[in-house]
Write a structure and sequence with these properties.
The complex is a heterodimer of chains A (317) and B (249). With 317 residues, chain A is of the alpha/beta class. Chain A contains eight helices and 16 strands. In chain A, the strands form three sheets. Chain A has a seven-stranded parallel beta sheet with strand order 5-9-4-1-2-3-10, sandwiched between helices. In chain A, strands 13-12-14-15-16 form a five-stranded parallel beta sheet. A three-stranded antiparallel beta sheet of chain A has the order 6-7-8. In chain A, helix 1 links the parallel strand 1 and strand 2. In chain B, 27% of the residues lie in helices and 31% in strands. Classes of the chains: A alpha/beta (317), B alpha/beta (249). Chains A and B meet through helix 3, helix 4, strand 5, strand 7 and strand 8 of A and helix 3, helix 4, strand 7, strand 8 and strand 9 of B. Strand 11 of chain A pairs antiparallel with strand 9 of chain B.
Protein backbone atom coordinates (compact mmCIF):
# COMPACT_ATOMS: atom_id res chain seq x y z
CA UNK A 1 0.00 0.00 0.00
CA UNK A 2 1.01 3.62 -0.40
CA UNK A 3 2.62 6.06 2.00
CA UNK A 4 0.98 9.36 2.89
CA UNK A 5 3.37 12.22 3.59
CA UNK A 6 2.07 15.23 5.50
CA UNK A 7 3.64 18.34 3.99
CA UNK A 8 4.79 21.15 6.25
CA UNK A 9 4.60 24.59 4.70
CA UNK A 10 3.72 28.23 5.34
CA UNK A 11 1.03 28.28 2.61
CA UNK A 12 3.56 29.70 0.14
CA UNK A 13 6.73 27.68 0.51
CA UNK A 14 7.29 24.11 1.58
CA UNK A 15 9.24 23.93 4.84
CA UNK A 16 12.61 22.44 3.97
CA UNK A 17 12.16 19.38 6.20
CA UNK A 18 9.26 18.23 4.00
CA UNK A 19 11.95 17.27 1.47
CA UNK A 20 13.78 15.13 4.04
CA UNK A 21 10.54 13.49 5.13
CA UNK A 22 9.73 12.76 1.47
CA UNK A 23 13.02 10.90 1.14
CA UNK A 24 12.22 8.79 4.21
CA UNK A 25 8.70 8.12 2.88
CA UNK A 26 10.11 6.95 -0.46
CA UNK A 27 12.38 4.51 1.38
CA UNK A 28 9.32 2.89 2.94
CA UNK A 29 7.43 2.54 -0.34
CA UNK A 30 7.91 4.06 -3.77
CA UNK A 31 4.25 5.05 -4.02
CA UNK A 32 4.35 8.26 -2.00
CA UNK A 33 1.33 10.56 -1.91
CA UNK A 34 1.53 13.90 -0.14
CA UNK A 35 -1.20 15.91 1.53
CA UNK A 36 -1.02 19.65 1.96
CA UNK A 37 -3.59 21.16 4.28
CA UNK A 38 -3.61 24.94 4.12
CA UNK A 39 -5.27 28.21 3.27
CA UNK A 40 -4.54 30.02 0.00
CA UNK A 41 -1.81 27.47 -0.41
CA UNK A 42 -1.83 26.95 -4.20
CA UNK A 43 1.78 28.04 -4.48
CA UNK A 44 2.97 25.51 -1.90
CA UNK A 45 0.79 22.80 -3.46
CA UNK A 46 2.42 23.42 -6.84
CA UNK A 47 5.90 23.14 -5.32
CA UNK A 48 4.90 19.90 -3.64
CA UNK A 49 3.73 18.47 -6.96
CA UNK A 50 7.17 19.21 -8.41
CA UNK A 51 8.98 16.84 -6.03
CA UNK A 52 9.83 13.87 -8.27
CA UNK A 53 9.33 11.33 -5.44
CA UNK A 54 5.69 12.37 -4.99
CA UNK A 55 3.19 10.43 -7.13
CA UNK A 56 0.06 12.31 -6.14
CA UNK A 57 -0.73 15.48 -4.21
CA UNK A 58 -3.90 15.95 -2.20
CA UNK A 59 -4.80 19.55 -1.48
CA UNK A 60 -7.24 20.60 1.23
CA UNK A 61 -8.10 24.25 1.65
CA UNK A 62 -10.02 26.17 4.31
CA UNK A 63 -9.42 29.34 6.36
CA UNK A 64 -9.14 27.31 9.56
CA UNK A 65 -6.07 25.53 8.16
CA UNK A 66 -4.01 28.70 7.98
CA UNK A 67 -2.16 28.12 11.25
CA UNK A 68 -1.53 24.35 11.19
CA UNK A 69 -3.58 23.60 14.32
CA UNK A 70 -3.31 19.86 15.00
CA UNK A 71 -6.95 19.69 16.11
CA UNK A 72 -7.98 20.86 12.61
CA UNK A 73 -5.40 18.89 10.64
CA UNK A 74 -5.90 15.47 12.26
CA UNK A 75 -9.50 14.79 11.08
CA UNK A 76 -8.53 15.43 7.45
CA UNK A 77 -5.76 12.87 7.55
CA UNK A 78 -7.87 10.35 9.47
CA UNK A 79 -10.47 10.53 6.67
CA UNK A 80 -7.80 9.54 4.16
CA UNK A 81 -5.98 7.00 6.30
CA UNK A 82 -7.70 3.85 5.07
CA UNK A 83 -5.95 4.16 1.70
CA UNK A 84 -2.48 4.10 3.21
CA UNK A 85 -0.20 1.70 5.02
CA UNK A 86 1.99 4.47 6.47
CA UNK A 87 1.50 8.09 7.45
CA UNK A 88 4.75 10.02 7.66
CA UNK A 89 5.91 13.49 8.69
CA UNK A 90 8.89 15.24 10.27
CA UNK A 91 9.68 14.87 13.95
CA UNK A 92 9.93 18.61 14.47
CA UNK A 93 7.48 20.64 16.56
CA UNK A 94 4.96 20.50 13.69
CA UNK A 95 4.99 16.71 13.39
CA UNK A 96 5.42 16.04 17.10
CA UNK A 97 2.32 18.07 17.80
CA UNK A 98 0.22 16.52 15.04
CA UNK A 99 1.10 12.86 14.50
CA UNK A 100 0.14 11.39 17.91
CA UNK A 101 -3.29 12.95 17.52
CA UNK A 102 -3.70 10.99 14.28
CA UNK A 103 -2.15 7.78 15.65
CA UNK A 104 -4.44 7.66 18.69
CA UNK A 105 -7.53 8.06 16.49
CA UNK A 106 -6.32 5.20 14.31
CA UNK A 107 -5.45 3.11 17.38
CA UNK A 108 -1.86 2.86 16.22
CA UNK A 109 1.24 2.93 18.40
CA UNK A 110 3.29 5.70 16.81
CA UNK A 111 6.94 5.24 15.90
CA UNK A 112 8.66 8.54 16.75
CA UNK A 113 11.78 10.15 15.39
CA UNK A 114 13.29 7.41 13.22
CA UNK A 115 16.80 7.84 11.84
CA UNK A 116 16.76 4.88 9.44
CA UNK A 117 14.23 2.79 7.52
CA UNK A 118 15.33 -0.85 7.79
CA UNK A 119 12.20 -2.28 6.17
CA UNK A 120 8.59 -1.07 5.83
CA UNK A 121 7.89 -2.19 9.40
CA UNK A 122 11.32 -1.97 11.07
CA UNK A 123 13.09 1.23 11.96
CA UNK A 124 16.07 2.55 13.87
CA UNK A 125 15.45 5.29 16.41
CA UNK A 126 17.51 6.95 19.13
CA UNK A 127 16.34 6.64 22.73
CA UNK A 128 17.72 8.15 25.96
CA UNK A 129 18.88 11.32 24.20
CA UNK A 130 20.69 9.31 21.56
CA UNK A 131 22.73 7.34 24.09
CA UNK A 132 21.21 4.15 22.69
CA UNK A 133 19.78 3.15 19.33
CA UNK A 134 16.70 0.91 19.31
CA UNK A 135 15.71 -1.27 16.39
CA UNK A 136 11.96 -1.55 16.56
CA UNK A 137 9.35 -3.42 14.58
CA UNK A 138 5.83 -2.06 14.42
CA UNK A 139 3.10 -4.72 14.45
CA UNK A 140 0.25 -2.30 13.77
CA UNK A 141 -1.37 -2.71 10.37
CA UNK A 142 -1.30 1.03 9.85
CA UNK A 143 1.89 2.80 10.85
CA UNK A 144 2.32 6.39 11.94
CA UNK A 145 5.97 7.37 11.68
CA UNK A 146 7.78 10.62 12.39
CA UNK A 147 11.23 10.97 10.94
CA UNK A 148 14.27 12.86 12.17
CA UNK A 149 14.77 15.21 9.22
CA UNK A 150 18.52 15.63 9.62
CA UNK A 151 19.00 11.87 9.26
CA UNK A 152 17.61 11.82 5.71
CA UNK A 153 18.87 13.79 2.71
CA UNK A 154 16.39 16.19 1.14
CA UNK A 155 14.78 14.86 -2.04
CA UNK A 156 15.05 16.62 -5.40
CA UNK A 157 12.74 19.63 -5.42
CA UNK A 158 12.10 20.07 -9.13
CA UNK A 159 11.33 18.05 -12.22
CA UNK A 160 8.22 16.23 -11.02
CA UNK A 161 4.62 16.94 -11.99
CA UNK A 162 2.39 14.88 -9.75
CA UNK A 163 -1.37 15.19 -10.30
CA UNK A 164 -3.15 17.39 -7.77
CA UNK A 165 -6.41 16.18 -6.29
CA UNK A 166 -8.67 18.42 -4.21
CA UNK A 167 -10.36 17.10 -1.12
CA UNK A 168 -13.14 18.61 0.98
CA UNK A 169 -12.21 20.24 4.25
CA UNK A 170 -13.34 18.97 7.64
CA UNK A 171 -15.24 20.96 10.21
CA UNK A 172 -13.37 23.49 12.32
CA UNK A 173 -12.40 22.46 15.87
CA UNK A 174 -13.88 25.31 17.86
CA UNK A 175 -12.15 24.81 21.22
CA UNK A 176 -8.68 25.82 20.04
CA UNK A 177 -7.96 29.29 18.70
CA UNK A 178 -4.74 30.54 17.19
CA UNK A 179 -3.74 33.89 18.70
CA UNK A 180 -0.30 34.78 17.35
CA UNK A 181 3.06 33.52 16.28
CA UNK A 182 6.30 35.33 17.06
CA UNK A 183 8.73 34.09 14.48
CA UNK A 184 12.23 35.32 14.76
CA UNK A 185 13.19 36.26 11.21
CA UNK A 186 16.81 36.40 10.27
CA UNK A 187 18.94 36.38 7.14
CA UNK A 188 21.11 33.68 8.62
CA UNK A 189 20.86 30.06 7.47
CA UNK A 190 18.28 27.95 9.29
CA UNK A 191 19.66 26.16 12.34
CA UNK A 192 18.32 22.77 11.24
CA UNK A 193 19.93 22.86 7.80
CA UNK A 194 22.98 25.14 8.15
CA UNK A 195 26.40 23.92 6.99
CA UNK A 196 28.06 25.56 9.97
CA UNK A 197 26.60 26.14 13.43
CA UNK A 198 28.22 28.32 16.08
CA UNK A 199 26.75 27.70 19.53
CA UNK A 200 27.16 29.45 22.85
CA UNK A 201 26.50 28.18 26.34
CA UNK A 202 26.41 29.38 29.91
CA UNK A 203 30.07 30.34 29.55
CA UNK A 204 28.92 33.38 27.58
CA UNK A 205 27.80 34.79 30.98
CA UNK A 206 25.13 37.14 29.59
CA UNK A 207 23.05 38.06 26.58
CA UNK A 208 25.29 40.99 25.70
CA UNK A 209 28.30 38.69 25.33
CA UNK A 210 26.28 36.47 23.02
CA UNK A 211 27.02 39.09 20.35
CA UNK A 212 30.46 37.50 20.14
CA UNK A 213 28.79 34.32 18.90
CA UNK A 214 26.83 36.38 16.36
CA UNK A 215 30.04 37.91 15.04
CA UNK A 216 31.67 34.54 14.50
CA UNK A 217 28.49 33.21 12.88
CA UNK A 218 28.31 36.21 10.55
CA UNK A 219 31.91 35.74 9.53
CA UNK A 220 31.35 32.04 8.73
CA UNK A 221 27.86 32.38 7.27
CA UNK A 222 26.70 30.10 10.08
CA UNK A 223 23.53 29.56 12.04
CA UNK A 224 23.48 30.34 15.77
CA UNK A 225 22.86 27.63 18.31
CA UNK A 226 22.71 27.59 22.09
CA UNK A 227 22.67 25.19 24.99
CA UNK A 228 19.58 24.92 27.15
CA UNK A 229 21.45 26.65 29.97
CA UNK A 230 21.98 29.70 27.74
CA UNK A 231 18.33 29.79 26.67
CA UNK A 232 17.08 29.26 30.24
CA UNK A 233 19.29 32.13 31.39
CA UNK A 234 17.69 34.35 28.75
CA UNK A 235 20.86 34.99 26.70
CA UNK A 236 19.02 34.03 23.51
CA UNK A 237 15.56 32.88 22.36
CA UNK A 238 14.31 29.27 22.48
CA UNK A 239 14.38 28.71 18.72
CA UNK A 240 18.19 28.48 18.96
CA UNK A 241 18.27 25.59 21.44
CA UNK A 242 20.18 22.51 20.36
CA UNK A 243 19.65 19.29 22.29
CA UNK A 244 17.37 16.47 23.36
CA UNK A 245 14.31 18.68 23.64
CA UNK A 246 15.51 21.38 21.26
CA UNK A 247 16.77 20.96 17.73
CA UNK A 248 18.97 18.21 16.38
CA UNK A 249 21.62 19.51 14.03
CA UNK A 250 24.19 17.71 11.86
CA UNK A 251 26.23 20.45 10.22
CA UNK A 252 29.62 19.97 8.55
CA UNK A 253 31.08 22.10 11.34
CA UNK A 254 29.74 22.64 14.85
CA UNK A 255 31.58 25.11 17.05
CA UNK A 256 30.64 24.87 20.73
CA UNK A 257 31.80 27.87 22.72
CA UNK A 258 31.45 27.98 26.49
CA UNK A 259 29.30 24.84 26.43
CA UNK A 260 30.17 22.15 28.97
CA UNK A 261 28.46 19.36 27.01
CA UNK A 262 25.62 17.97 29.15
CA UNK A 263 24.11 14.71 27.83
CA UNK A 264 21.05 16.68 26.77
CA UNK A 265 23.11 19.02 24.60
CA UNK A 266 25.27 16.28 23.05
CA UNK A 267 22.04 14.58 21.95
CA UNK A 268 21.43 17.46 19.58
CA UNK A 269 24.82 17.85 17.95
CA UNK A 270 27.09 14.83 18.31
CA UNK A 271 26.38 13.57 14.79
CA UNK A 272 27.94 16.74 13.33
CA UNK A 273 30.78 15.98 10.91
CA UNK A 274 33.42 18.12 12.61
CA UNK A 275 33.04 19.38 16.17
CA UNK A 276 35.11 22.17 17.71
CA UNK A 277 34.95 22.89 21.43
CA UNK A 278 36.30 26.01 23.08
CA UNK A 279 36.07 25.86 26.85
CA UNK A 280 38.32 26.87 29.70
CA UNK A 281 37.52 23.73 31.69
CA UNK A 282 39.76 21.05 30.21
CA UNK A 283 37.63 18.35 31.85
CA UNK A 284 34.36 19.50 30.25
CA UNK A 285 32.48 16.56 28.65
CA UNK A 286 32.19 18.49 25.37
CA UNK A 287 35.86 17.64 24.70
CA UNK A 288 34.98 13.93 24.59
CA UNK A 289 33.06 14.45 21.35
CA UNK A 290 35.19 17.25 19.88
CA UNK A 291 37.49 16.64 16.92
CA UNK A 292 39.36 19.80 17.83
CA UNK A 293 39.38 21.02 21.39
CA UNK A 294 40.81 24.31 22.54
CA UNK A 295 41.20 24.80 26.26
CA UNK A 296 41.02 28.57 26.56
CA UNK A 297 39.13 31.52 27.97
CA UNK A 298 36.52 32.20 25.33
CA UNK A 299 36.75 35.96 25.84
CA UNK A 300 40.36 35.78 24.67
CA UNK A 301 39.82 33.01 22.13
CA UNK A 302 36.92 34.55 20.18
CA UNK A 303 38.71 37.82 19.24
CA UNK A 304 41.76 35.76 18.22
CA UNK A 305 39.52 33.44 16.22
CA UNK A 306 38.01 36.43 14.39
CA UNK A 307 41.50 37.76 13.71
CA UNK A 308 42.67 34.43 12.28
CA UNK A 309 39.53 34.13 10.15
CA UNK A 310 40.15 37.63 8.81
CA UNK A 311 43.61 36.55 7.72
CA UNK A 312 42.18 33.81 5.51
CA UNK A 313 41.85 34.72 1.85
CA UNK A 314 38.66 32.77 1.40
CA UNK A 315 36.08 31.22 3.67
CA UNK A 316 33.79 28.50 2.34
CA UNK A 317 30.20 29.55 2.66
CA UNK B 1 -11.17 23.74 38.86
CA UNK B 2 -9.46 20.40 39.16
CA UNK B 3 -6.09 19.59 37.59
CA UNK B 4 -4.84 16.07 36.94
CA UNK B 5 -1.08 15.82 36.47
CA UNK B 6 0.54 12.73 34.96
CA UNK B 7 4.08 11.89 36.06
CA UNK B 8 6.48 9.19 34.90
CA UNK B 9 9.38 7.51 36.67
CA UNK B 10 12.51 7.46 34.50
CA UNK B 11 16.26 6.97 34.87
CA UNK B 12 17.61 10.17 36.43
CA UNK B 13 18.69 12.69 33.79
CA UNK B 14 22.23 12.83 35.19
CA UNK B 15 22.86 9.10 34.84
CA UNK B 16 24.97 7.91 31.94
CA UNK B 17 22.83 4.99 30.76
CA UNK B 18 24.24 1.59 29.80
CA UNK B 19 22.98 -0.83 27.20
CA UNK B 20 22.43 -4.42 28.41
CA UNK B 21 25.02 -6.87 27.17
CA UNK B 22 22.41 -9.04 25.45
CA UNK B 23 21.07 -5.92 23.63
CA UNK B 24 17.61 -6.45 25.12
CA UNK B 25 17.37 -2.99 26.63
CA UNK B 26 18.88 -0.51 29.07
CA UNK B 27 20.29 -1.44 32.49
CA UNK B 28 17.89 -0.19 35.17
CA UNK B 29 18.93 -2.30 38.17
CA UNK B 30 20.60 -0.20 40.87
CA UNK B 31 20.28 2.92 38.75
CA UNK B 32 19.06 6.20 40.23
CA UNK B 33 15.49 6.91 39.16
CA UNK B 34 13.60 10.22 39.28
CA UNK B 35 10.52 11.96 38.01
CA UNK B 36 10.74 12.77 34.30
CA UNK B 37 12.04 16.40 34.39
CA UNK B 38 9.25 18.20 32.47
CA UNK B 39 6.68 16.31 34.60
CA UNK B 40 8.13 18.24 37.56
CA UNK B 41 7.30 21.42 35.67
CA UNK B 42 3.76 20.13 35.13
CA UNK B 43 3.27 19.52 38.86
CA UNK B 44 4.79 22.90 39.73
CA UNK B 45 2.46 24.73 37.35
CA UNK B 46 -0.62 22.95 38.68
CA UNK B 47 0.37 23.73 42.28
CA UNK B 48 1.03 27.39 41.37
CA UNK B 49 -2.40 27.67 39.76
CA UNK B 50 -3.95 26.21 42.89
CA UNK B 51 -1.99 28.62 45.08
CA UNK B 52 -3.27 31.53 42.99
CA UNK B 53 -6.79 30.46 43.89
CA UNK B 54 -7.75 29.41 40.38
CA UNK B 55 -7.76 25.67 41.06
CA UNK B 56 -9.21 23.74 43.95
CA UNK B 57 -7.53 20.37 43.66
CA UNK B 58 -4.36 18.89 42.14
CA UNK B 59 -4.32 15.13 41.61
CA UNK B 60 -1.07 13.40 40.63
CA UNK B 61 -1.21 10.16 38.66
CA UNK B 62 1.35 7.69 37.47
CA UNK B 63 1.08 4.48 35.49
CA UNK B 64 3.73 1.86 36.06
CA UNK B 65 5.38 -0.69 38.28
CA UNK B 66 5.27 -0.77 42.08
CA UNK B 67 8.12 1.69 42.55
CA UNK B 68 6.59 4.25 40.19
CA UNK B 69 4.55 5.33 43.21
CA UNK B 70 7.62 7.27 44.40
CA UNK B 71 6.92 9.87 41.73
CA UNK B 72 3.38 10.37 42.98
CA UNK B 73 4.66 10.67 46.54
CA UNK B 74 7.13 13.30 45.39
CA UNK B 75 4.33 15.22 43.67
CA UNK B 76 2.36 15.12 46.93
CA UNK B 77 5.39 16.53 48.75
CA UNK B 78 5.46 19.61 46.50
CA UNK B 79 1.79 20.35 46.78
CA UNK B 80 -0.47 17.85 45.01
CA UNK B 81 -3.48 16.96 47.17
CA UNK B 82 -3.85 13.28 46.44
CA UNK B 83 -2.49 10.59 44.18
CA UNK B 84 -3.49 7.76 41.88
CA UNK B 85 -1.20 4.88 40.98
CA UNK B 86 -2.30 2.63 38.15
CA UNK B 87 -0.16 -0.45 38.45
CA UNK B 88 1.16 -2.02 35.29
CA UNK B 89 4.33 -3.97 34.58
CA UNK B 90 6.46 -4.26 31.50
CA UNK B 91 6.83 -1.90 28.57
CA UNK B 92 4.05 0.66 28.41
CA UNK B 93 3.68 2.45 25.10
CA UNK B 94 2.30 6.00 25.05
CA UNK B 95 -0.88 4.73 23.37
CA UNK B 96 -1.50 2.34 26.28
CA UNK B 97 -0.79 5.04 28.86
CA UNK B 98 -3.11 7.51 27.12
CA UNK B 99 -5.90 4.91 27.12
CA UNK B 100 -5.42 4.34 30.85
CA UNK B 101 -5.40 8.10 31.46
CA UNK B 102 -8.58 8.42 29.40
CA UNK B 103 -10.33 6.01 31.80
CA UNK B 104 -9.11 7.98 34.79
CA UNK B 105 -10.17 11.29 33.22
CA UNK B 106 -13.67 9.90 32.62
CA UNK B 107 -13.87 9.02 36.29
CA UNK B 108 -12.14 12.04 37.82
CA UNK B 109 -13.52 14.64 35.39
CA UNK B 110 -10.65 17.14 35.70
CA UNK B 111 -10.81 20.48 33.89
CA UNK B 112 -7.16 20.28 32.94
CA UNK B 113 -4.62 17.52 32.44
CA UNK B 114 -0.95 18.50 32.61
CA UNK B 115 2.12 16.41 31.86
CA UNK B 116 5.66 16.83 30.56
CA UNK B 117 6.03 17.27 26.83
CA UNK B 118 8.32 14.27 26.47
CA UNK B 119 9.77 11.51 28.61
CA UNK B 120 13.55 11.48 28.58
CA UNK B 121 13.77 7.68 28.38
CA UNK B 122 11.90 6.68 25.20
CA UNK B 123 11.83 10.28 23.87
CA UNK B 124 8.45 9.53 22.25
CA UNK B 125 6.62 12.83 22.79
CA UNK B 126 3.16 11.33 22.25
CA UNK B 127 1.11 10.75 25.41
CA UNK B 128 -0.45 14.20 25.85
CA UNK B 129 -1.44 14.54 22.22
CA UNK B 130 -2.85 10.99 22.19
CA UNK B 131 -4.91 11.63 25.31
CA UNK B 132 -6.35 14.81 23.78
CA UNK B 133 -7.23 12.85 20.64
CA UNK B 134 -9.00 10.14 22.63
CA UNK B 135 -10.96 12.73 24.61
CA UNK B 136 -11.40 15.08 21.64
CA UNK B 137 -10.09 17.89 23.83
CA UNK B 138 -7.89 20.80 22.75
CA UNK B 139 -4.16 20.36 23.19
CA UNK B 140 -1.45 22.88 23.99
CA UNK B 141 1.90 21.17 23.58
CA UNK B 142 5.39 22.42 24.54
CA UNK B 143 3.95 25.10 26.86
CA UNK B 144 6.35 27.70 28.22
CA UNK B 145 3.68 30.03 29.63
CA UNK B 146 0.15 29.40 30.84
CA UNK B 147 -2.42 32.02 31.74
CA UNK B 148 -5.70 30.87 33.26
CA UNK B 149 -8.73 32.96 32.23
CA UNK B 150 -12.11 31.68 33.50
CA UNK B 151 -12.81 28.59 31.44
CA UNK B 152 -10.01 29.31 29.00
CA UNK B 153 -6.24 29.09 28.94
CA UNK B 154 -3.86 31.24 26.98
CA UNK B 155 -0.79 29.15 26.32
CA UNK B 156 2.54 30.15 24.80
CA UNK B 157 4.08 27.22 22.95
CA UNK B 158 7.72 26.77 22.03
CA UNK B 159 7.87 25.89 18.35
CA UNK B 160 10.80 25.56 15.94
CA UNK B 161 10.24 29.03 14.51
CA UNK B 162 9.95 30.78 17.89
CA UNK B 163 6.83 31.15 20.00
CA UNK B 164 3.16 30.58 19.29
CA UNK B 165 0.21 31.63 21.43
CA UNK B 166 -3.09 29.77 21.38
CA UNK B 167 -6.28 30.00 23.36
CA UNK B 168 -7.95 26.77 24.40
CA UNK B 169 -11.24 26.12 26.14
CA UNK B 170 -11.31 23.78 29.10
CA UNK B 171 -11.35 20.85 29.49
CA UNK B 172 -7.93 20.67 27.86
CA UNK B 173 -4.54 19.00 27.85
CA UNK B 174 -1.28 20.90 28.31
CA UNK B 175 2.16 19.36 27.82
CA UNK B 176 4.85 21.31 29.60
CA UNK B 177 8.25 22.52 28.51
CA UNK B 178 11.19 22.79 30.91
CA UNK B 179 11.05 26.58 30.64
CA UNK B 180 7.51 26.81 32.00
CA UNK B 181 8.68 27.39 35.56
CA UNK B 182 11.28 26.51 38.16
CA UNK B 183 10.10 23.42 40.07
CA UNK B 184 10.39 23.80 43.84
CA UNK B 185 12.11 21.38 46.15
CA UNK B 186 10.09 19.53 48.73
CA UNK B 187 10.77 20.69 52.29
CA UNK B 188 11.25 18.05 54.98
CA UNK B 189 7.97 18.90 56.77
CA UNK B 190 6.14 18.66 53.45
CA UNK B 191 7.75 15.30 52.69
CA UNK B 192 6.48 14.09 56.08
CA UNK B 193 3.00 15.51 55.42
CA UNK B 194 2.94 13.88 51.98
CA UNK B 195 3.23 10.47 53.61
CA UNK B 196 -0.24 10.97 55.04
CA UNK B 197 -1.85 12.07 51.77
CA UNK B 198 -3.94 9.36 50.09
CA UNK B 199 -2.82 7.42 47.02
CA UNK B 200 -5.48 5.35 45.32
CA UNK B 201 -4.09 2.13 43.87
CA UNK B 202 -5.63 0.65 40.75
CA UNK B 203 -4.64 -2.22 38.48
CA UNK B 204 -4.33 -1.42 34.77
CA UNK B 205 -5.98 -4.69 33.71
CA UNK B 206 -9.07 -3.81 35.79
CA UNK B 207 -9.69 -0.73 33.68
CA UNK B 208 -10.64 -2.72 30.62
CA UNK B 209 -7.89 -1.33 28.46
CA UNK B 210 -5.68 -3.40 26.17
CA UNK B 211 -2.11 -2.34 26.94
CA UNK B 212 -0.29 -5.06 25.02
CA UNK B 213 2.70 -3.49 23.25
CA UNK B 214 2.29 -3.07 19.50
CA UNK B 215 5.93 -2.35 18.93
CA UNK B 216 8.54 -5.03 19.22
CA UNK B 217 11.91 -3.95 20.52
CA UNK B 218 14.19 -6.03 18.30
CA UNK B 219 17.43 -4.84 19.85
CA UNK B 220 19.04 -1.93 21.65
CA UNK B 221 22.61 -0.99 20.83
CA UNK B 222 25.21 1.56 21.75
CA UNK B 223 25.38 4.32 19.16
CA UNK B 224 28.55 4.40 17.06
CA UNK B 225 31.29 6.08 19.08
CA UNK B 226 33.01 9.17 17.79
CA UNK B 227 36.72 8.68 17.46
CA UNK B 228 38.67 10.73 19.96
CA UNK B 229 39.80 14.10 18.68
CA UNK B 230 42.79 16.21 19.55
CA UNK B 231 43.44 19.27 21.64
CA UNK B 232 44.97 22.19 19.81
CA UNK B 233 47.37 24.56 21.51
CA UNK B 234 46.26 27.83 19.98
CA UNK B 235 43.53 29.55 18.00
CA UNK B 236 45.93 29.82 15.05
CA UNK B 237 46.42 26.06 15.05
CA UNK B 238 42.66 25.53 15.28
CA UNK B 239 41.94 27.70 12.25
CA UNK B 240 44.77 26.09 10.30
CA UNK B 241 43.35 22.60 11.07
CA UNK B 242 39.82 23.62 10.11
CA UNK B 243 41.08 25.10 6.85
CA UNK B 244 43.66 22.55 5.74
CA UNK B 245 42.90 19.29 7.55
CA UNK B 246 39.11 19.20 8.04
CA UNK B 247 38.56 21.54 5.08
CA UNK B 248 35.35 22.91 6.52
CA UNK B 249 36.02 26.66 6.36
Amino acid sequence: MSVLLIAEHDNKELKSFTLNAATAASQIDSDVHAILIGHNSAEAVKKLSELPVIKKVISVEAPHYENYTAENFAPVIIKLAENYSHIVCSANTFGKNLMPRIAAHLDTSQVSDIIKVLSPDTFLRPIYAGNAFATIKSNDTKKCVTIRPTSFDPCESTGGSAPIEKMDSSEEFSNTKFVKREEIKSDRPELGTARIVVSGGRGMQNGENFKLITEVADKLGAAIGASRAAVDAGYISNDHQVGQTGKVVVPDLYIAIGISGAIQHLAGMKESKVIVAINKDGEAPIFSVADYGLEADLFEAIPQFMEELNKLNTIQK
Amino acid sequence: MKILVAVKRVIDYNVQIRVKEDNSGIVTDNVKMSTNPPDDNAIEEAVKIKESGKATEVVAITVGEEKAQETVRKALAVGADRGIHVKADGILEPLAVSKILQKIVEKEKPDLVFMGKQAIDDDCNQTGQMLSALLNWPQATFASKIEVKDNKLEVTREIDEGLETIEINTPAIVTCDLRLNEPRYASLPNIMKAKKKPIEELIASDLGVDITPRIEQVKVEEPPKRKAGIKVASVAELVQKLKNEAKVI
